[in-house]
């Protein structure tokens, strides 16, 4: 039976992520470091596949989008102009008993903490605003210059707006895509990578003429494009929804905003934000667009799609988690799976089988991300590959030596079929299309 088990799924995902090499606690040998995570050998493949699929859809898949990769540390004036130094804040409350600090709007954590001091009354101070920007000190002489690790990757797009217009043939409407690290001094990081202090974003800033109706249409179009991206990559559509932001909940730059939320084991949670930023950013940076056909000069408006790479990666993991009796497997879309194929010799001590299997492994490796396993018995190897979501396992057995066929075992159904070695590459490429 193909059952998606929800109970305790988060604990199971955390354990699996560690056991199989998806996600490790950052600096673990020194006790970890709150809000920082490292991706292991299969985690980095999954995360890179998420980014690659995003870039394929949002940049290569469109004629009106180009990409950039801006620096993480920018001139501090950027953050003054963008409003982040003033307004990029979360509400923080402090426990009067133990002086621990929490995000006021994190109801679950607030309740848990109240339970610890359940004999005390009125434990919380009034909420204070807490700025999320991470400070860094640069230079060799004192006092060092204070700068910031970027709180959103977005500002690098705005500051390069003119460079992109001048160096390419883009014309409004057009977009600039970017993927990269962002940093926030989060008050309460948690739920594995969901809320981290260092994370990655994948964003499109789409520049349009300042027009209420047209920009609203663009906003609606991008909502659908982004929602369909998650669904097309296999996320359960019943666990996806839009959530419009009330005016008081919107970020300081947003005219209006909608989140794409995923129903995580810890509740409905933001995975991506779609924002109408109006002329807030280009206006604050004093940047304009000159339409050299009509000679009009104006400040473009911006519709933004801002996804979290780590959140998408986490939710693809959670969404694909399956238990079938004793078998645990990740029903990941093959495009996202860390390894597409695993190749095994039936027996590790039979030289002819090992040599034949090594040849197949090396050939497939030229085109696909393939792994090799000759440990233990076949059952154990299937078990290990299922847990990391490898869609197909190829076994070289004694029949292979006679008729040049191998068994290909399908992760989801467990079914095996015999395929000619010559046809393997075509078979996998077709499945991955
Ligand atoms: N440029 C707009 C922007 O940064 P945001 O809603 O603050 O908007 C966009 O962030 C996305 O970045 C979120 O939907 C989420 O996926 C991801 N994100 C934000 N803070 C995060 C954190 N502390 N840890 C992991 N991902 C985060």
What would you note in describing this structure?
The protein has 14 helices and 23 strands. Strand 17 (321-324) and strand 18 form a beta hairpin. The protein has a seven-stranded mixed sheet. A five-stranded mixed sheet has the order 20-19-21-22-23, with helices on both faces. It has a three-stranded antiparallel sheet with strand order 5-4-6. 33% of the residues lie in helices and 29% in strands. The chain has two domains: 3-84 and 147-319, BirA Bifunctional Protein, domain 2 (2-Layer Sandwich), CATH 3.30.930; 341-431, Rossmann fold, CATH 3.40.50.800. Mean pLDDT is 95; it is low at 1-5. With 433 residues, it is α+β, with helices and mostly antiparallel strands. The protein starts with 8 loop residues before the first helix and ends with a helix. Bound molecules: glycyl-adenosine-5'-phosphate (GAP). Glycyl-adenosine-5'-phosphate is lined by residues 152, 154, 184, 186, 195-196, 199, 201, 203, 270-273, 304, 306-308, 310-311. The site of glycyl-adenosine-5'-phosphate has 19 residues, from strand 10, strand 13, strand 16 and helix 10.
CATH superfamily of the largest domain: Bira Bifunctional Protein, Domain 2
Instruction: Report the average pLDDT across residues.
Output: 95
Text of the CATH class of the largest domain:
Alpha Beta
Q: Please identify, by name, the CATH architecture of the largest domain.
A: 2-Layer Sandwich
Structural class: alpha+beta
Q: What is the CATH topology classification name of the largest domain? A: BirA Bifunctional Protein, domain 2
